[in-house]
Amino acid sequence: MNALSLLNPTFTPDVFDIFDRNFGTTIPDVDVRETDGAYILDMDLPGRSENDVAINLKDRVLSISSVEEAKTEEKKKDADGYDFLIRERKSSSFARRFTLPEDIDAEKVEANFKNGVLTINIPRRPEAQARQILIKTA
Question: Average pLDDT in the 44-63 region?
């Protein structure tokens, strides 16, 4: 079975995704690796910190989301004393959901955030891992 078919993102591009991508909202890309003992998910989140991201796991659905609100400002001038004519950089958000395979150990899922990259380690249950079976002779 293809490893990518085991981790099924429930995000489906549609007309709204095309609209969002064209007007400043970005959906972070994800890399998924498979090892003998785990699935490892890497997501680039430049400019965000671990405090900006929420991760939830329920019924084998992994949800990763972030809402970054603009900081309210009393001033209408920038640092050089000029008034803003257009101010488009206000806030951004995203949500991604992945249906995980049945062999995961949900209690041992861990997340790490370093240098703008979110890494989620999703261990597999030992009993679900493949093992070689010896053939006995009669």
Answer: 93
